[in-house]
């Protein structure tokens, strides 16, 4: 019964909705939004005003509400397109800066590249994303303890490869800040 009601609704609204969307978007977008609109209509079939148990509903009763659904789906598609465009622009800007930044930190990048993929990911999540071991564990599907151990060992290997075997910070004296007693 539900399927027959939906098919009857679709026969009445598909062409008018398609025309409506074509006047507001490209053919490809209109078709995608029409599909999304029909999915929403299927999910909310009981909410469509004027849709009784008739196999063929009256277009004047159902079309206004269906236009509202299509309008909302089109707005969602436009927002998603805007987000995708902003993401692409941000990625392009990042890639344009990457060679300059890589040249400044080539020693660090070489040391990072010498780590295994799992160690490299843990270090990046910790250093670049600012995540705690508990959060890294959640992101990687590991345990917090395993992440802490992996991070500790990876940081030690990085320090060794960067020539900081004694753990002192560059530019600082090892006895700085200690009393001479």
Give the topology, please.
Blueprint lengths: L1 H21 L4 H17 L15 H46 L1 H8 L3 H11 L5 H8 L3 H18 L20
Low-confidence residue ranges: none
Number of helices: 7
Rounded to the nearest angstrom, the radius of gyration is 29 Å
Q: What is the makeup of the main sheet? A: none
Describe this structure in words.
With 181 residues, the chain is mainly α. It has two domains: 2-97, Orthogonal Bundle (Rna Polymerase Sigma Factor, Chain: A), CATH 1.10.1740; 105-161, Winged helix-like DNA-binding domain superfamily/Winged helix DNA-binding domain (Arc Repressor Mutant, subunit A, Orthogonal Bundle), CATH 1.10.10.10. It has seven helices and no strands. The chain has helices at 2-22, 27-43, 59-104, 106-113, 117-127, 133-140, 144-161. Helix 2 (27-43) packs across helix 3 (59-104) and helix 6 packs across helix 7 (144-161). The longest helix is centred in the middle third of the chain and has 46 residues, at 59-104.
Task: Provide a brief overview of the structure.
The protein is mainly alpha-helical and 181 residues long. It has seven helices and no strands.
